Known about the structure:
By secondary structure, the chain is mainly beta. The protein has no helices and nine strands. The chain has a single domain (6-103), classed as Jelly Rolls (Sandwich), CATH 2.60.120.10. A hairpin with a 2-residue loop joins strand 5 and strand 6. It is globular, with a radius of gyration of 13 Å.
Amino acid sequence: MLQGKTIINPVIKDEVTYVHTAQSTNGKKTVVDIHLEPKGGLNLHYHKAFEETFEVQQGELMVQIGKKKKKLVAGEKITVRRNEIHRFYSESEKPTKFRATLVPAH
């Protein structure tokens, strides 16, 4: 069972805690809280099976969708649709905390 479990990925400098899983939401969504270290993040990628919403809880998060880049701060969110090429990353010298919601669950 992943709910409540934290996984640390030293390569992209993040810590992921599962808030809700496919099992706990009947397949409707997966929700994870992410602690991103300064300058951490992912390369461009896309998802065929789900959309992904990023909601910043603390700090700043850069989200790139296609060629457009947007800086989000606490309280702001953005949704990336299926098959949209995107990435999230930090340009800040401070850690960032954000929530990612995957719909449907994955």
